[in-house]
Each structure stands twice: as structure tokens, then as C-alpha cells.
Design brief:
This protein has 97 residues and is α+β, with helices and mostly antiparallel strands. It contains 2 helices and 8 strands. Strands 3-2-1-5-4 form a 5-stranded antiparallel β-sheet. A 3-stranded antiparallel β-sheet has the order 6-7-8, with no helix packed on it. β2 (23-28) and β3 form a beta hairpin. It is globular.
Length: 97
């Protein structure tokens, strides 16, 4: 829901998702949406082939990643954290896409 309307968000348009307590901020190529759903539940609904957790508070669309540097993932103008415990899985999944 966005402004009392049901909005369809295409998976391909999602850049990344950020956890904000029991909410998720879905950042797309055009807008940002706030969803009243825990990150764990949203992660289960996203297609695993294209989305990967990089940090306990962030899920990224692997098709939208621009750069990877020491502990960071760049998506457009945004820098997102890449935790050491999730780096191995992230790099494996990124190479598979």
C-alpha cells in the first residue's frame, strides 16, 4: 500500500531493501515505499535468484549492483554495508547471476 492505494512493484525495479525495525523500506528506481513487514518475511517473498542479503539490515537486487569495495556495495549513488559473515554467499551468488 502507498497513499491508500495498492501499488504493484516489479522485482526488476527494486534496487534494495532496508530494515527499519518492524518495517522495510523498499527502494526502487523511481520511488521509496515503506512496508509494514519484518525483513525476514519479505526476504522469503523475494525471488532468491536475484536478491541477496548483504547485512542484517539490507537485501540487494544482484542485477542492480554497480560496484563492490572493501565492505561496501555501491548501487547507484548509495553505499550499502557488506558484512564479513555474508560476503562469501554474496560473492558466490553475484558470480552466478
Amino acid at each position: 500500500r502507498h497513499n491508500d492505494k495498492m501499488v504493484k512493484v516489479m522485482f526488476a525495479d527494486i534496487l534494495h531493501v532496508a530494515a527499519d525495525r518492524s518495517y522495510c523500506r523498499i527502494i526502487t528506481t523511481r520511488k521509496e515505499y515503506l512496508l509494514s513487514m519484518p525483513m525476514k518475511r519479505l526476504e522469503e517473498k523475494l525471488p532468491a535468484a536475484n536478491f541477496c542479503r548483504t547485512h542484517r539490515s539490507h537485501i540487494v537486487n544482484l542485477l542492480q549492483v554497480d560496484e563492490i569495495s572493501d565492505g561496501m556495495v555501491r548501487m547507484g549513488k548509495e553505499l550499502l554495508p557488506l558484512s564479513p559473515s555474508m560476503k562469501g554467499d554474496f560473492m558466490r551468488r553475484l558470480n552466478a547471476v
